[in-house]
Amino acid sequence: MTSTWRSDLMAGAVVAVLLVPQSLAYAMLAGLPPQAGLYASLLPLLAYAVFGSSPVLGLGPAAVLALMITQALAGLPPGVTPEAGALVLAAEVGALLGLAALLRLDALSSLLSVPALRGFESGATLMIAAGQLPVLLGSTASGSTLPTLAQSALHGGWQPVSAAWGGVAIMLLMASRRGGRQLARLAPLALLVAAMAVSAFTPLAGGVAQVGALPALSLPLAWPLWDAALWRQLLPSAALIGLMTFVTSLAVSESLAQRRGEKLLPAAELRGLAAANMVAGVSGGMPVAGSFSRSILLHEAGARSRWALVFVAAFMALALLLLAGPLAHLPKPVLAATIVVAVLGGFTARHYVEAWRYARAEGLLMVAVTAAVLLWSVGAALAMGVVGSVALLIRRTAQPHVARVGRVPGTQHYRNVERYAVECQPDVVGLRIDESLVFTNARGLVDAVLERVREHRVLLGEPQRVLLLMGPVNHIDMSGLVALQELRAALAAEGIRLEFSEVKGPVLDRLRAVGWLERQDVSLYLSHHEGVQAGAHALRPSQADHDAPGQL
Amino acid sequence: MTSTWRSDLMAGAVVAVLLVPQSLAYAMLAGLPPQAGLYASLLPLLAYAVFGSSPVLGLGPAAVLALMITQALAGLPPGVTPEAGALVLAAEVGALLGLAALLRLDALSSLLSVPALRGFESGATLMIAAGQLPVLLGSTASGSTLPTLAQSALHGGWQPVSAAWGGVAIMLLMASRRGGRQLARLAPLALLVAAMAVSAFTPLAGGVAQVGALPALSLPLAWPLWDAALWRQLLPSAALIGLMTFVTSLAVSESLAQRRGEKLLPAAELRGLAAANMVAGVSGGMPVAGSFSRSILLHEAGARSRWALVFVAAFMALALLLLAGPLAHLPKPVLAATIVVAVLGGFTARHYVEAWRYARAEGLLMVAVTAAVLLWSVGAALAMGVVGSVALLIRRTAQPHVARVGRVPGTQHYRNVERYAVECQPDVVGLRIDESLVFTNARGLVDAVLERVREHRVLLGEPQRVLLLMGPVNHIDMSGLVALQELRAALAAEGIRLEFSEVKGPVLDRLRAVGWLERQDVSLYLSHHEGVQAGAHALRPSQADHDAPGQL
């Protein structure tokens, strides 16, 4: 056995210790029997090992997905069990991710901005913790949003014995966190084993809800239900779960790859996640994703290749064999305690403060997304996050900053006249366009420029040229091009020439391809300084070409 | 009477001559009785004159709106006449525009890019012309998309006499276009009067469909139907019609304001359009917008103030009194001919070629929107235009160009090493980020930069610093900020410092507000050249502040 194998074996064992309690707990959280979580931690890991790319992605059931699964399975038609629904969901998530891989849609993951993603994850964390409260207290209340949970809690009582079990479990887990990382990671499994033993051999767990016996242990390999109406019903949820799966898994595997100096291929990642979910759908599991805590653990425990995941799966099979009997006695409040402590450990209120201080609008979006998770639904929250992020992006590009620039005395640098003491010439209006010219701002361009020309006229007299410093213009789309044409016409009506300086290479390539500069008779300068100095001897495009054979 | 009044009176008369046939024709096109078009050209014009801002907006029924109205009224519940539906629609469009004015949503108009708008208008033009063919030919076929029209045409025959009337009318109108502008503008009204006379006093129009007698002429002032279900049903259509009304009216009034050296207030424009449509909804009209052809005409005929619109309305009232009787005899094919000639005059295939040559993707979007109008529905086409434009914008920002830059020998300018012969120093990697750092590209930033560092290492040796030239970065959102933090950490792991040069004022203000540069210990330089030269003596942010009291 080489040293790589030994490292992977050790890392696999360490991660399995964390994965056993998590897989049981997240299955319960998703409203599924515990074995669904265990099954989801076997074959899907092998599938990812074959098709994926990251050596340290801690694949398996995940807390946020579990919450999404609960909501997705809330409206199943009569006769379809949650287990059957979860299999269809997993298969559908896998199929969608596979389709996204085929169509090279990995860029879709960028639709979730940091505020949207953090707002969503924080909301899900709070909702998961709130949802486990009744289990901790031995109440029958349940609900996947705060209003439904509160309504249900009005009618349910609570059991002091359950609450005692839950309270003690939480205290032990919290205490273990003070004892260092090793202890904190071992604690959940140790607690489960201890709780099973106490519950089985003493009467202390009398009346407390217990997990119950697992069915005969054979991997239930079977096709998911082929029911077109059911697949259609679950499609929107599957799309959202697929998006979350990809975004959260990619975020963790990318950040670890950067730390490890490895190169990650998003497309391979998408393929691996697709395969894992498809396999989960035919082997009794539930949708799976990369977990942040388990991935970090794989990395820190020294995993070197995807063989580590194969060893995790082997240890999970072993655990399944050993735990099948004893699990019957595990009190549910203990499992709920492991969930609450695990998810709340990931909650950071600081994120809201940071976003709010840096950009009000993004902070508000983050709060709105969190509130939507708690009060409405995960689907609505995700949609709000995507639409809100895009709206903020559009709003930002919609208000271009058009600055009059002048020369910093004694240099060839040109800066905003409102922020610097600079020199301006009366015959030329130097303007810097601080934004790409695209449809969201094209309509306002002409007015913004004419406004600056008026300013110039009042302060410095009648100009002969407007020289646009185009360095910050990264793109000009069709709408921007039409706006430039209108600008040229509007300036020409006042007897003023339009000229450009410092046009970026890719932008210039486009303008040249359609002969725009020649047709519009717009002069070009390599640097703004040259343009200002050129005075009446403006270079025509053909001459500029000659002087600068390379492109600007 | 002052000379302004005289100019406005003359311009009003000229525009009324064009508006009479257009208002009759567009009412027919919208599936409404002819008087709806005439009523829509009376009080709504006065309302705009009071609340609007442009002196040359040719308000009234419009061809594209007429097509949208037909589709909106296709699914009216039994018992609701198209006339009653059109009044509800107009009132609702007015209410929505008023709401948009209150909420200052005038920026929403920027959601329609040039390719989307042109694709939509071209599609509507073709569809309107195709829809008039059966009327021209005396067939009973009808439909507001090509498939429904074709299906309906399969079952209908045609009438040689109607076709003769239609053919002659088209030829006369086309011929008038060769006779100069004056003639072309007078031709439609002259043709209508001549056709009414021939039809009334000769037997030539026997069997040809005719407009029919108008009801007793009294302005039907009444509230629109207060039926909540009906208002809800028409709401999506009203929103789309409102958007088109605002966008097309604003486009024409803005471009004329620029030509006339006037300043246009989009908010006032929105208010005027809202008032006009609300009034149309209570005075027997139909939704109204600014027409391109009539606005140009008002401008060229010398209109100086919104009194011109008041005179247009007065002439329309006169026309209504004179035409009420004779209109009964007007053959419909003649009216259809005026529509076909008017709308096809505005169709320019060149727009597709231009868009395609300048940017494939925008050309494709334009074709797709046109096809959607013809084959699907105006609503789907508009939605496709908006979503497609936003998707292209996102795609553009998603692939940032990160260029290694070097010094143009003998200058202080830095340019892309791949396009210029420039000098680079081995200890510093100069990179220009050609895009704002926002969520759509944040995830790719670290990889893109590390890739360039690897290139540098191979070509020039181990660097000590990465100096990012931030001039083209117009915004950094929260996701971009997080990415920069990750970049700093990833570089630090390789023993490389991160530094910025030429950070824009507004961007720097934001970073300073949260103390980011200090916390992350990132140095700042006023110019890239300074940064490269600084070598080991990097300025710390506090020092930079001191050296440059103004902001960068």
From TrEMBL, chains A, B:
Where the record annotates domain STAS, the positions are 418-535
Matching entries from CDD domains are given as: STAS_SulP_like_sulfate_transporter
Q: Please give the start and end residues of each transmembrane region.
A: 56-74, 86-105, 157-175, 187-214, 234-253, 307-328, 334-353, 365-394
Where primarily located? membrane
The record's listing under Pfam families reads:
STAS, Sulfate_transp
Q: Where in the cell is it found?
A: Membrane
Q: What is this protein called?
A: STAS domain-containing protein
Fetch the PANTHER family from UniProt.
SULFATE TRANSPORTER
**The organism's place on the tree of life at top rank:** Bacteria
How does this protein lie in the membrane? Multi-pass membrane protein
Sorted alphabetically, the keyword list is: Membrane, Transmembrane, Transmembrane helix
